[in-house]
């Protein structure tokens, strides 16, 4: 029974773990759980000592609380709180959080540093090379390739589609303003097709529904998202994790953009001869119609 609970906990986010384990909390842990639940945007970047002080408990209670929720110490609990910030915080909370994070250090260097950290984290703890290779294989073998991203992720999906259209004739960028319109555009998806869903906090329900629909109709599905608790993971045959972070009202999408670049490059190298023929024809077309500015000789 205990083993079943522990296995279940691994797939739950912080708030779900708190709800599942609430009945076993001590009085201090209940106070701490209540503080985190209602002040996660503040708690996310506090040390264990400061979090305990804010919640009215000892630092040791904070550490024990982390283990009680099946985290390997406070640093992992802190990361879990930060995931909740990215997923659940609204725009006003994000503005307040960013003011605290960037006001003293300066915006430009702080954000560039954060992006560097997220890239390093993605290399070390994020994307799996075997999953990446599998995604490349699925895309290359697909009859048709559907790509969907909404809101800020739409630009990642659009860039991916822009380059993939240079490599393939079967690329469909799903562009719709509602769930019903999205499903109308993919209603005839086939088991030999592949759908790529791109979503980052706050996760798009439309992307989740679309991947669920595609998987239910037998198509292969690829999710580009930030972590294993992302709601699209359940409906993905292949998952590519790229770290993201909260930056005021915007999200850092530097890491997923790098993954997009890597996917395009890997497919171009895999189809090298065909791609060279396509690019030759495109270069002639671009030159004929003066698409790009060229310096006078």
Number of strands: 7
* Helix/strand/pairing category: alpha/beta
The 3D shape can be described as: elongated
Strand order of the largest sheet: 2-1-3-4-5
Task: Tally the helices.
Answer: 15
What is the radius of gyration computed over CA atoms, rounded to a whole number of angstroms? 22 Å
For the biggest sheet, the summary is:
5 strands, parallel
The SSE string, one letter per element, is HHHHHHHHHHEHEHEHEEEEHH
Unreliable stretches: none
Strand content: 5-15%
> How much helix, percentage-wise, in residues?
55-70%
Q: Please, could you describe this protein's structure?
A:
This protein has helices at residues 2-10, 14-21, 27-38, 40-43, 48-55, 59-68, 74-88, 91-102, 107-126, 129-141, 153-167, 179-185, 205-216, 254-270, 272-288, and strands at 145-149, 171-173, 194-198, 220-225, 238-241, 245-247, 250-252. The strands form 2 sheets. A 5-stranded parallel sheet has the order 2-1-3-4-5, sandwiched between helices. The chain is elongated and about 75 Å long. The protein is of the alpha/beta class and 297 residues long.
């Amino acid at each position: 029974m205990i083993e079943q609970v522990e296995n279940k906990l691994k797939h739950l986010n912080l708030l779900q773990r708190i709800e599942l384990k609430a009945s076993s909390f001590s009085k201090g842990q209940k106070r701490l759980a209540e503080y985190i639940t209602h002040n996660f945007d503040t708690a996310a970047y506090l040390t264990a000592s400061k979090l305990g002080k804010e919640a009215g408990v000892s630092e040791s209670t904070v550490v024990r609380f982390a283990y009680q929720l099946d985290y390997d110490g406070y640093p992992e609990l802190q990361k879990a709180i930060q995931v909740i910030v990215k997923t659940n915080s609204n725009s006003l909370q994000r503005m307040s959080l960013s003011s605290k994070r960037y006001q003293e250090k300066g915006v430009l260097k702080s954000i560039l540093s954060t992006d560097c950290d997220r890239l390093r984290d993605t290399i070390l703890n994020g994307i799996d090379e075997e999953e990446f290779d599998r995604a490349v294989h699925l895309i290359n073998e697909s009859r048709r390739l559907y790509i969907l991203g909404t809101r800020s992720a739409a630009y990642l999906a659009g860039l991916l589609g822009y380059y993939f259209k240079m490599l393939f004739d079967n690329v469909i960028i799903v562009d719709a303003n509602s769930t019903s319109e999205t499903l109308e555009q993919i209603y005839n998806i086939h088991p030999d097709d592949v759908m790529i869903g791109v979503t980052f906090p706050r996760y798009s329900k439309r992307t989740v529904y679309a991947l669920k629909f595609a998987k239910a109709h037998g198509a292969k599905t690829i999710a580009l998202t930030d972590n294993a608790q992302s709601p699209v993971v359940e409906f993905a045959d292949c998952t590519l994790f790229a770290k993201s972070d909260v930056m005021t009202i915007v999200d850092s999408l530097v890491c997923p953009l790098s993954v997009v670049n890597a996917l395009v490059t890997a497919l171009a190298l895999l189809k090298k001869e065909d791609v060279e023929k396509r690019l030759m024809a495109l270069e002639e077309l671009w030159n004929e119609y003066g698409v790009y500015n060229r310096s006078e000789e």
